[in-house]
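Colleagues,

For the teaching module next term, I've prepared a clean inverse folding example: a structure given as tokens, and then the sequence designed for it. I'd like students to try predicting residues themselves before seeing the answer, so please don't circulate the second half yet.
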């Protein structure tokens, strides 16, 4: 219910009024629905990809925290390909930026912002059954939403 209402950000306690105000005044980003959501033959595949996204986000966060460049590169490369295959081009576009940085070297400072953006994009993803093309479907939450302990903070 929270995600459907647009509550897709996180703020740690204790927080101040100014922290809360700043969070509430951020521009709201729309949910990310697959560009292939209207294709009935893709529905189950898209939904399976979305269902696996929580685990993928968690693995990316863990690889980043561990400074495991090879795992991070593999995970991001796989996410790039599958994001594109299932109609989530923004995931692929953000993954390309991270791959480019990783080709040079693992630099936490250079990776932090694009990685935050990739994780934010993943948290916007919704299953194809929640698209306007399927009005009879019930509400569905994004499994990749919400912060993981020790994950980079949301912006």
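(Answer key — instructors only)
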């Amino acid at each position: 219910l929270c995600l459907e209402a647009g509550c897709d950000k996180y703020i740690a306690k204790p927080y101040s009024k100014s922290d809360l105000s700043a969070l509430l005044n951020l521009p709201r980003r729309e949910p990310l629905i697959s560009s292939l959501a209207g294709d009935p033959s893709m529905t189950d595949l898209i939904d399976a990809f979305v269902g696996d996204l929580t685990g993928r986000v968690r693995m990316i966060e863990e690889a980043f925290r561990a400074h495991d460049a090879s795992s991070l590169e593999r995970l991001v490369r796989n996410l790039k390909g599958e994001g594109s295959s299932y109609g989530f081009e923004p995931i692929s576009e953000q993954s390309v930026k991270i791959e480019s940085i990783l080709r040079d070297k693992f630099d936490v400072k250079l990776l932090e912002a694009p990685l935050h953006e990739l994780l934010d994009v993943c948290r916007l993803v919704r299953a194809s059954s929640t698209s306007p093309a399927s009005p009879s479907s019930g509400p569905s939450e994004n499994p990749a939403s919400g912060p993981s302990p020790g994950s980079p903070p949301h912006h």
